[in-house]
Automatic annotation (TrEMBL):
Keyword annotations: Biological rhythms, Signal
Pfam families in alphabetical order: JHBP
Recorded family membership: Belongs to the TO family.
Protein name: Protein takeout
């Protein structure tokens, strides 16, 4: 029972040990998560504003601190709370719409800094048999994040007009919770997919008996 309860903690620790060094492990198909690369995120924080981010690098995803783990051994359902001290986001953006009744059509660099983040991880495994050997795979990996504090900055708003750019950036950060309500589900989905692929590649290298010798 105790061994099963530590599966997800083992996976997170393994992923962290690998990704924190910014290396890949070809034998396990494990990519680096420093930085985690996201292709494109599109969100509409208001009916009058659309922002598309692309070529995104996320730094700090591997620097999580695992906390309490829980397990339903019958359903192969595991959960763990993690702390993400600091997440840095760098990328490009395109924005169209209005902020404070001002028309905005801009593109440029995007910078995000998020601190005191708390993550809730839920992992569902399932058994399967391969060439007569019982194994386990990750059927679902779900990550939910709450952000304690954060800032967003968009470069080159209004063609680089500093005063108007500052007004819009201030408006964004004064309504930070509204922006995060739209943005976080997209980030959560991308991180969940990345971690599921990595965890699955790791556990499928072993038999169920190897993972849980005392089960």
């Amino acid at each position: 029972m105790a061994a099963k309860a530590t599966l997800i903690a083992f996976l997170l620790a393994t992923i962290g040990a690998i990704t924190a060094r910014d290396i890949r492990v070809p034998d396990y198909n494990v990519p680096s998560l420093e930085p985690l690369k996201l292709k494109k995120l599109t969100f509409t924080p208001t009916n009058s504003l659309r922002l598309q981010a692309s070529d995104i690098d996320v730094f700090g995803a591997s620097n999580y601190i695992p906390h309490k783990a829980r397990a339903d051994t019958e359903k192969l359902l595991y959960a763990i709370d993690i702390e993400l001290p600091n997440i840095i986001v760098e990328g490009k953006y395109e924005m169209n719409g209005r902020v404070l009744l001002l028309p905005i059509h801009g593109s440029g660099g995007l910078h995000g800094n998020f601190s005191n983040c708390i993550g809730a991880v839920r992992v569902l495994g399932e058994k399967y048999t391969e060439e007569g050997v019982e194994k386990i795979r990750i059927k679902d990996f779900n990550l939910k994040i709450s952000v304690g504090h954060g800032t967003l900055k968009l470069d080159n708003l209004f063609g680089g007009e500093q005063v108007l750019g500052d007004v819009v950036n201030n408006a964004i950060n004064n309504n930070f919770d509204l922006f995060m309500k739209e943005l976080l589900p997209l980030v959560e989905k991308a991180l969940s997919k990345a971690f599921q692929n990595i965890a699955d590649n790791i556990v499928q290298q072993f038999s169920y008996e190897q993972l849980f010798p005392n089960a």
